[in-house]
């Protein structure tokens, strides 16, 4: 445990359970072991000393019930709900009366009986004083997570800011176009914001190759596609994704985080990514007969290269590629959401397996 740091731990209680909150963000590889007498927790995450290995080992004041206890990971901490073996108010969390500088009272979850004895009152006052003192020290000594500005950081901030402003123009320009033109705007969406959209996509050419295929090889080359309402909806979906993605990247590059932006980044993809895949696939199917008619990007024998190429075959295969790539992208985003935001519900009955 020499290389393991202690995170801040906040505890509270009711008559029948203990509440613990471990102040760690972005945790990975957590190891949890709960028995009737002890709790052991180890994980890599972002705590008071930055990203490192943190650990907690506690011996309880009284036995607990591991089978009916559970925990969950959130964006900012790890929360435990530990059921007491016998309903009663504890004067302290640990069996020994030791002063642990990283252990603090969570007064919002600290409910004791009205008939608390003098020892409980003294201990509560002492813990509150210790918490205030260490929170004051923590606020003074906590290193800033903001990154100093460098050439690389300046580039990342400027690039992501440029993309955010660009896609904001695309989205709000398209909405204004719809307000002023009505249903006609669904047939002239590309004419209204196509140039600005292509500028943004050229700047992010290697980020979203599939989107570039749709935009530059299909929509741009076939005017009849540009007039389809599906283009209007596809631009809205693309823009909606980027209006959240780029502010998130700006904050990440600066070592900062806003809970709402993080939540939006790892939640809006749930409706928007599948909808975008569906719209892109629809556009490809609509393009097949048009490129069969024009022969654009296709060439036949004889020619100087002595080879033939039929572009509609690529379009017929593309939906299969799109479905496979979309499946892996959705899986990736789900794993990222689970890691950053934690599971949606408490993970029950996990301790029993890990304590055997």
TrEMBL record:
Reaction(s) the record says it catalyses: a very-long-chain (3R)-3-hydroxyacyl-CoA = a very-long-chain (2E)-enoyl-CoA + H2O
Keywords: Coiled coil, Endoplasmic reticulum, Fatty acid biosynthesis, Fatty acid metabolism, Lipid biosynthesis, Lipid metabolism, Lyase, Membrane, Transmembrane, Transmembrane helix
UniProt-listed InterPro entries: CS_dom, HSP20-like_chaperone, Tyr_Pase-like_PTPLA
SUPFAM superfamilies, sorted: HSP20-like chaperones
Enzyme class: lyase
Any one GO molecular-function label of the UniProt entry: very-long-chain (3R)-3-hydroxyacyl-CoA dehydratase activity
Family, as annotated: Belongs to the p23/wos2 family.
PANTHER family, alphabetized: VERY-LONG-CHAIN (3R)-3-HYDROXYACYL-COA DEHYDRATASE
Protein name from the UniProt record: Very-long-chain (3R)-3-hydroxyacyl-CoA dehydratase
Organism expressing this protein natively: Pomacea canaliculata (Golden apple snail)
Lineage: Eukaryota, Metazoa, Spiralia, Lophotrochozoa, Mollusca
């Amino acid at each position: 445990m020499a290389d393991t740091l202690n995170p801040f731990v906040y505890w509270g209680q009711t008559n029948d359970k203990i509440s613990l909150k471990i102040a760690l963000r972005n945790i990975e590889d957590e190891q949890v072991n709960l028995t009737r007498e002890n709790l052991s927790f180890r994980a890599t995450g972002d705590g008071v000393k930055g990203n490192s290995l943190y650990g907690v080992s506690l011996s309880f004041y009284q036995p607990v019930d591991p089978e009916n206890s559970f925990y969950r990971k959130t964006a900012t901490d790890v929360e435990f709900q530990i059921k007491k073996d016998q309903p009663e108010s504890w004067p302290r969390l640990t069996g020994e009366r030791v002063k642990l500088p990283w252990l603090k009272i969570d007064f919002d979850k600290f409910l004791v009986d009205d008939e608390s004895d003098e020892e409980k009152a003294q201990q509560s006052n002492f813990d509150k004083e210790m918490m205030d003192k260490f929170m004051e020290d923590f606020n003074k000594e906590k290193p800033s997570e903001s990154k100093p500005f460098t050439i690389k950081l300046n580039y990342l901030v400027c690039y992501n800011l440029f993309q955010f402003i660009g896609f904001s123009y695309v989205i709000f320009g398209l909405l204004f176009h719809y307000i002023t033109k009505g249903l006609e705007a669904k047939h002239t969406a590309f004419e209204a914001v196509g140039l600005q959209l292509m500028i943004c996509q050229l700047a992010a050419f290697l980020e979203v190759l599939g989107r570039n295929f749709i935009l530059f090889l299909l929509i741009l080359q076939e005017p009849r596609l540009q007039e389809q309402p599906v283009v209007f909806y596809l631009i809205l979906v693309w823009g909606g994704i980027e209006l959240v993605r780029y502010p998130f990247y700006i904050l990440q590059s600066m070592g900062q985080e806003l809970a709402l932006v993080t939540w939006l980044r790892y939640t809006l993809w749930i409706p928007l990514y599948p909808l975008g895949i569906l719209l892109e696939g629809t556009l490809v199917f609509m393009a097949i007969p048009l490129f069969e008619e024009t022969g654009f990007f296709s060439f036949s024998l004889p020619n100087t290269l002595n080879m033939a190429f039929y572009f509609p075959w690529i379009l017929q295969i593309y939906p299969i590629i799109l479905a496979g790539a979309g499946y892996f992208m959705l899986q990736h985003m789900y794993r990222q959401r689970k890691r950053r935001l934690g599971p949606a519900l408490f993970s029950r009955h996990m301790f029993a397996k890990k304590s055997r």
